[in-house]
Design brief:
By secondary structure, the chain is mainly β. It has a single domain, classed as Neuraminidase (6 Propeller), CATH 2.120.10.30. The chain is 1% helix and 46% strand. Strands 1-2-24-23-22-21 form a 6-stranded mixed beta sheet, with no helix packed on it. The chain is globular and about 55 Å long. The two termini are 19 Å apart.
Length: 352
């Protein structure tokens, strides 16, 4: 299949969706589809890496895409903010970060002055995570929250935010390298009397094969699980809540990937149903697994479909099932080398 390379920002490809589909019979190979992006964002300055989607619950058209730009030589990184049209909103972009890797969003963090939605990213070269209020993108972390303190191996990379049923928010953070056990650290995000956020370490957990690294993390708040990519082995699944057992619930997707197992995102439907999307980075495709598992085993996540995309070595991605303008069934956003993010219409991804 000939790849499509796009050099013009805001190239709109509405309705250029499924190019071919190879259907399957139950018990045989999953469906494989080729899909094209609806649009491609403005380029970032240096090196795109990971996106997050913030839903404006008062006005869906004002929702934002927040993407990391890792910067150059560990400096001049940014959280770049885009509208649903893919254009950068320059007065919201936050620059001057030292190698931000991954970013995630959460809603209604409790502050003394009132609740706020937040975007949180890792800042690898300061061994910290950064917290920004949404939608104004104002830093509310006193310059950064240190992570992996007292450990000889730090360099934070991946992050995902877990919100429990009481509304408390936790950041689950991975690193460039680490021990075979307790690779991930989990921090309770709490504010002080000046509305500045700090992180309180509440848990260390997670196995690591030692083969490559762990970057991609995704939390399923409603189901209470966290998934992360042990890049050379598969997707590991644990409970997300810090008071739950540190027991590995599943290790799946071990044989589906060409090379690195990267970005994870979760498309949520009602009653715990939906899909888990994982980047097969060097193959320029995404594998889609069942979110709910099987009737006999809720931790048995079966491969349903593979989508071949126009992305080039996609690292991070995010998806939402919320209805947005031009995306009635939801929006999938994927990073693509070297400097952009691509928007895909969910109806194109799941079209038979």
């Amino acid at each position: 299949m000939k790849k499509v390379f796009v050099a013009v920002c805001h190239l709109t490809l509405f309705s250029i969706s499924v190019l071919f589909t190879v259907s399957c019979i139950s018990g045989k190979k999953p469906i494989v589809s080729q899909v094209a992006p609806v649009l491609i964002t403005d380029t970032v300055q240096y090196n795109s890496d990971d996106p997050a989607i913030w839903i404006n619950k008062k006005d869906k058209s004002g929702s934002l895409i927040i993407g990391t730009d890792k910067g150059k030589d560990g400096h001049d990184g940014a959280l770049v903010v885009f509208g649903l049209d893919g254009k950068e909103i320059k007065d919201k972009t936050f620059r001057g970060l030292k190698r931000p890797n991954n970013v995630d969003v959460a809603y209604q963090l409790k502050l003394k002055s009132g609740n706020t939605d937040i975007a949180v990213c890792t800042e690898r070269n300061t061994n910290s995570i950064r917290v920004f209020s949404l939608p104004d993108m104002k830093a509310i972390d006193n310059g950064g929250i240190p992570v992996f303190e007292g450990d000889s191996i730090r360099l934070p990379m991946g992050i995902s935010l877990y919100t429990d049923k009481s509304g408390e928010i936790y950041a689950i953070v991975s690193r460039k390298n680490g021990p075979r056990e307790n690779y991930l650290h989990e921090y309770h995000l709490v504010s002080d009397e000046n509305d500045q956020v700090k992180g309180v370490l509440v848990r260390k957990f997670g196995s690591f094969s030692g083969k490559k690294e762990i970057e991609a993390i995704a939390v399923d708040n409603e189901s209470g699980y966290v998934y992360y990519s042990d890049e050379g082995v598969g997707i590991r699944k644990y409970y997300a809540a810090p008071d739950q057992p540190n027991t590995e619930l599943a290790l799946f997707a071990s044989n589906a990937f060409k090379s690195d197992i990267e970005g994870i995102s979760i498309y949520k439907k009602g009653k715990g149903k939906g899909y888990i999307l994982v980047s097969d980075q060097q193959a320029n495709q995404f594998h889609i697994f069942s979110r709910e598992g099987t009737k006999l085993n809720p931790h048995d996540h079966r491969l349903i479909k593979t989508i071949k995309t126009n992305t080039i070595e996609s690292d991070g991605s995010e998806v939402t099932s919320v209805r947005l303008p031009h995306y009635r069934k939801g929006l999938f956003v994927a990073m693509s080398n070297p400097k952009v993010f691509q928007f895909y219409n969910w109806k194109d991804i799941m079209k038979k």
